[in-house]
Amino acid sequence: MPDVAPAPAQDIATERTGWRAVVADWSADRRTFRGVSWGKAMMWIFLLSDTFIFSCFLIAYMTARMSTTVPWPNASEVFALEIFGTNLPLILIAIMTFVLISSSGTMAMAVNFAYRRDRVKTALLMLATALFGAAFVGMQAFEWTKLIHEGVRPWENPWGAPQFGAAFFMITGFHGTHVTIGVIFLLIIARKVWRGDFDQGRKGFFTSRSGRWEIVEITGLYWHFVDLVWVFIFAFFYLW
Amino acid sequence: MGDVAHTAGTAVPHDDIDGAELYHPHSWLTKYVFSQDAKVIGVQYALTAIAIGMVALVLSWLMRLQLGFPGTFDFIDPAAYYQFITMHGMIMVVYLLTALFLGGFGNYLIPLMLGARDMVFPYVNMLSYWIYLLAVLVLVASFFAPGGPTGAGWTLYPPQAILSGTPGGQDWGIILMLLSLCLFIIGFTMGGLNYTVTVLQARTRGMTLMRMPLTIWGIFTATVMALLAFPALFVGAVMMLLDRLLGTSFFMPALVEMGQQLSYGGGSPILFQHLFWFFGHPEVYIVALPAFGIVSDLIATHARRNIFGYRMMVWAIVIIGALSFIVWAHHMYVSGMHPWFGFFFATTTLIIAIPTAIKVYNWLLTLWRGNIHLNLPMLFALGFIVTFVNGGLTGLFLGNVVVDVPLSDTMFVVAHFHMVMGVAPVMVIYGALYHWYPKVTGRMLDDMMGKIHFWVTFLGAYLIFFPMHYLGLLGVPRRYHDIGQTSFVPDSAHTLNAFISVVALVVGAAQLLFLFNLFWSLRRGKEAGPNPWNATTLEWQTPETPPGHGNWGRELPVVYRWAYDYSVPGAARDFTPQNEPPPAAAP
């Protein structure tokens, strides 16, 4: 309709107050969330959905733990490591948590440099994030191996309720899968940043759409979410 | 009515958003098979859903044959009967209704009704369909797997679902079922993110949320609910898979089977019920809300009246969606729970009746003194309203703990949920197909076949399910392969069962007539023209019919008014399209 003279957006909304104004803002023209790109909105909504998945896993685990009649293994003892003759409870988990939270720091810096269109620093920081993530998954593999050697199985363990092993492998496995996917995602995006895809408007292999710098921030959203979920798993599984 | 633009505004907001890149297919394969066009994906979803729905229809015939004429058909043994029940239920609820409403109508209508060129992520949208197809194929594969499909009942309750006494429990059946559900959820999530973001962030100029047609409101709210409810089913399915494959005991208590102590122990079957129904109850409204939305548009269009109480209709949809997340345990009254929980869930369940009643009254008030055209979409819409009220009223019975407990395991429940979430949404699907088929194909569906289809389906559904309520009150149990001779079920109940079965066969045959009509009218239907129903919404204003690639030619439409300007006093026609500019204001 080129013959219609466009007027400023605020003209369309007459003066409203209170809840009417809230509704009017939310039902705003074209976009409900102003300045939020499609990709970012999608990631937020996906994370909301994913939150429900992790919540269900954790609530199911807590239900199993509270309703079992057999004693639950003591996390401090199970997850302790013998280092230089000293028994350190939860030491591996502490390191893993530290590594993962540090990776959120490097990720945030990567997003910052992405906004400055600094290809090299963004790519390097994303690479660092991916390395932290890979280290996390590696330590998780070590933890799994250790527990399996000690006789922990999804259906039994030497110390108590069989649901301990089941919930442990399921929840940390599901989270580890998320981290692994995140690492792969980070590497792919870091490569694109390094190559300069987003400056040249190079088209994606699958989607045939040109990628944009904001994908770094979207990757960051996912990464921070995986990090946040770990905090809850840490609190509810290891510290409880 | 501040936030509803009844009167058209002249101000058009800035076009401050760059046009999206549109994927242009280069070959027949990328245009019609691996298509990224939401319209093609919508049709693919719809056809796949209808195809698998046909399987469910045949299964219902087989079940009715057994119930009506027990002992006559040798091949329907108890195991087969349970497999038919399970697959019929699961296919109808998940693979037909959910997929058709959200994947089918959602994909086709959202971009067109909002004035967008396509969904926001066409490639992900395409993946969504192919994963859905894979889920359907895995489901179908279980018919051919050793041991056949699972016979655990569509709710898949453990522990029986994975024990050897249940068909498919120790074979492939349950594994393929759970895998298929996981795939479905993954595929749906991909589609659902698309629908949500398209509605929120990709509308055309002038299309505020409060100007959207109610169809979109229904589909949008249902999609958001599905994104929050399916995770519970996903988790339940994963945990049951682990129980079955790895021998964990999430849902499995200590059990003795055939004199053998099983290795399971310490799990909670009730936990699965909570996870399942946290998905299962919103699922009822995931199916119902798109139906509510679509039926509002059908009624407004074919009664030539603006929808009564648009704002209330929107809020009712949103409130029903929110409430449906806190009523799930009313499916579990017979599992046993603390009376206070029963009280809570009964109360929340009954509260849902309020927004639902608002919707029903608003439909009636829209019809009130309207210029009702008794064409096929309107007939089906009216059929929906009465069926839904009917099923809703028995819902009030079952929502109360003390009434539910004696009725829960009887045919009364079967009659209730078939009325409210079987027949009612299916009525809307038919109404919607008769309504939008001209836009999809450019031709009208045959009227005579349609009329026969409607009357046989509508009257038949009542002949099937009304007697079934009565059977339930008599105490005829559900889930039984053969009730045999009992002291409390009179012989006349068997006659009634046979009657129901005969009607069910006839009603099923009428659906085949509809299927024939779909294909017959593709070539021989009357030419429809761009806007056969004189409707106001954007999808009828496309430059081409069927809409072409990119939907809108060079310029996106601009929206000046809400979707319900029918029979506006003083207007030249009895409908004013949403994209028609208002007459030039006096200087």
Automatic annotation (TrEMBL), chain A:
One of its GO terms (cellular component) is plasma membrane. It holds the Pfam family COX3. It is found in: Cell membrane. This is Cytochrome bo(3) ubiquinol oxidase subunit 3. Keywords: Cell membrane, Membrane, Transmembrane, Transmembrane helix. Belongs to the cytochrome c oxidase subunit 3 family. The chain crosses the membrane at residues 41-64, 84-111, 123-144, 164-194, 215-239. Cytochrome bo(3) ubiquinol terminal oxidase is the component of the aerobic respiratory chain of E.coli that predominates when cells are grown at high aeration. Has proton pump activity across the membrane in addition to electron transfer, pumping 2 protons/electron. It is a multi-pass membrane protein. Residues 19-240 form the Heme-copper oxidase subunit III family profile domain. InterPro entries: Cyt_c/ubiquinol_Oxase_su3 (IPR024791), Cyt_c_oxidase-like_su3 (IPR000298), Cyt_c_oxidase_su3-like_sf (IPR035973), Cyt_c_oxidase_su3_a-hlx (IPR013833). Heterooctamer of two A chains, two B chains, two C chains and two D chains. SUPFAM superfamilies: Cytochrome c oxidase subunit III-like.
UniProtKB/TrEMBL annotation, chain B:
It is found in: Cell membrane; Membrane. InterPro entries: Cyt_c_oxase-like_su1_dom (IPR023616), Cyt_c_oxase-like_su1_sf (IPR036927), Cyt_C_Oxase_1 (IPR000883), Cyt_c_Oxase_su1_BS (IPR023615), Cyt_c_oxidase_su1_bac (IPR014241). GO terms for cellular component: plasma membrane. Its EC number is 7.1.1.9. Keywords: Cell membrane, Copper, Electron transport, Heme, Iron, Membrane, Metal-binding, Respiratory chain, Translocase, Transmembrane, Transmembrane helix, Transport. GO terms for molecular function: cytochrome-c oxidase activity; heme binding; metal ion binding. One of its GO terms (biological process) is aerobic respiration. PROSITE patterns: COX1, COX1_CUB. SUPFAM superfamilies: Cytochrome c oxidase subunit I-like. The chain crosses the membrane at residues 40-62, 82-110, 130-152, 172-193, 214-242, 284-300, 312-334, 340-364, 376-398, 410-433, 454-476, 496-520. It holds the Pfam family COX1. Pathway: Energy metabolism; oxidative phosphorylation. It catalyses: 4 Fe(II)-[cytochrome c] + O2 + 8 H(+)(in) = 4 Fe(III)-[cytochrome c] + 2 H2O + 4 H(+)(out). It is a multi-pass membrane protein. Residues 22-560 form the Cytochrome oxidase subunit I profile domain. Coiled coil: none annotated. Belongs to the heme-copper respiratory oxidase family. Cytochrome c oxidase is the component of the respiratory chain that catalyzes the reduction of oxygen to water. Subunits 1-3 form the functional core of the enzyme complex. CO I is the catalytic subunit of the enzyme. Electrons originating in cytochrome c are transferred via the copper A center of subunit 2 and heme A of subunit 1 to the bimetallic center formed by heme A3 and copper B. This is Cytochrome c oxidase subunit 1. The lineage of its organism: Bacteria, Pseudomonadati, Pseudomonadota, Alphaproteobacteria, Acetobacterales.
